[in-house]
Design a protein that fits this description.
Oligomer: single chain
Number of strands: 0
Number of helices: 20
Helix content: over 70%
Structural class: mainly alpha
Amino acid sequence: MNSIRRNLVYNILYQILVMFLPIITVPYISRTLGKVGVGIFSYTYSIVYYFMLITLLGIENHGNRMIARVRSDKEELSKTFLGIYSIQITSGLLMVVSYVVYMLFINKKYEVVSWIQIIYLISAIFDINWFFFGLEEFKITVTRNTLVKVLSLFLIFVFVKGENGLFYYTLIMSLSTCISQMLLIPILLKRISFFKIGFRDVKKHLRPVFVLFFPVVVVSIYTVMDKIMLGELADVSYVGIYEQANKMVKIPLSIITALGTVMLPRISNLVSMNQKDKVIEYIEKSVKFMMFLAFPMWLGLVSIADKFIPLFLGSEFLGASEIVKLMSIVIVFISFANITRTQYLIPYERDKDYIISTSIGAVVNFVLNLLLIPVCQAVGACIGTIGAEMVVMLYQCIALKDELPLFKYARICVKYFIGAIVMYCIIGRIDRIKMNDAAIIILQVVIGIVIYGSVNFKYIKKLMIK
């Protein structure tokens, strides 16, 4: 098994775990904390998340890219890591001080939960996943994350109960993240040598780190800011509904985008060796694989949402089903944009196009949120997210129209879309059968897989042979 396939298997297995755990925890948390408790956690996390973003700047993408280029030279690898990580530690300490100032003099909401969230910020200082991603050592991060997530699952069911449930839930989630990051440090010490570096070794990373930081912040406007705006312009209970609906959409999406995590260091390495033909070959394979999954996941969610959401989240979250049906189309937009971003724009340092695309998306999202959230609440935030993700994908396609065979990719997408439509039309009729909701959902999923698999049997057979 070659390294790409092996790393993809590790990531997909981990993403399946990530998908499986919410299937266990989300119904429990939804019923234990309620939409207000879920909303408070989401709102306070959204705020600390911005401090975490500034801590990491654009280090995750830049660090991954640079480590991939120098991984064969230990001295250069060590120097590159130390230069980049010096920036991360400095920005992290500044953000911890800034968050404390925010809590003491500005914040007046949900103070206990907000103070606990500072642990997330501390975890960002120790986040060195980008180093191991650049080395393509995915097994290490996957194994560590798996153990920590299973432990946190156990702790949630033991401690998250009654009126103190939100306190313990926030503590478990933040501490597990921090411990997960710190477990990588002993392994890091075996991979690099420590020696004194000069300011020049740090300075050369400042510009690219800040350039890549801009799109990260901009993207957060339409992935995180919508929850803050919902909490301010509507009510925290709508944040809870929106958060759980968003999780339902992101669960299948996490499996698809695992490929982007695997491919970024590999493509960056190929770019450093000037092997563009190989890059284009990998991109086409990625389009086939990711869109093969994206279309049925989108229409599959639309098909089961009305029955699945009340069963899964409880009656308090009935409004989430409409959000899931609307928002699930972003699976297609995000999947395709993930390919263009991680396999072309970032490896080839096309940072300007990346920045412009995300900036346009942020403006579209902010304007739509401002206009629609006061009127439509969570549905308004959902429409803002759809609009943002769509324009990001479209701009990136326009920017790369002369460099990638986009019409060829479009034909691939049409083929999978037709297969997904056939699946949708058939399983949509199943919910008319007089059975309990759980049985209908299982039947829809099984029949949907069989139908879509039959329509695309040739591709599946080819994939299995390879």
